[in-house]
Amino acid sequence: MKFLLFIILSFPLTYFHSQSNISGTIANDSQVGLSAVLIMNMNSGQQTISDQNGQFTIKVYDGDWLRFVRKDYERVSIK
Q1: Which of 23, 58, 61, 74 holds its CA 20 to 30 A away from the CA of 16?
Q2: What are the tens digits of pLDDT across the range 4-33?
Q3: CB-CB contact of 9 with 24 (8 Å)
Q4: Which residue in 12, 72, 2, 70 sits closest to 36, CA to CA?
Q5: How far apart are CA 51 and CA 65, in angstroms?
């Protein structure tokens, strides 16, 4: 099973005190953007899917867990 190696998130490394949008790019070990990755906010239930370049945006609150899932790849969760 492959592993989602690169998850690059574009948001400040500060605590969220309110709802924020975060954006990022998901790539394989060759740094090629991965499309059709399901990104789930495990706290709110919100979901989105990465585009053809591996890019995504999702709403989060402080302390939310995000899970990244794609067929034939290992699931990854981050807080």
Answers
A1: 74
A2: 545 555 444 444 456 789 999 998 888 899
A3: yes
A4: 70
A5: 21
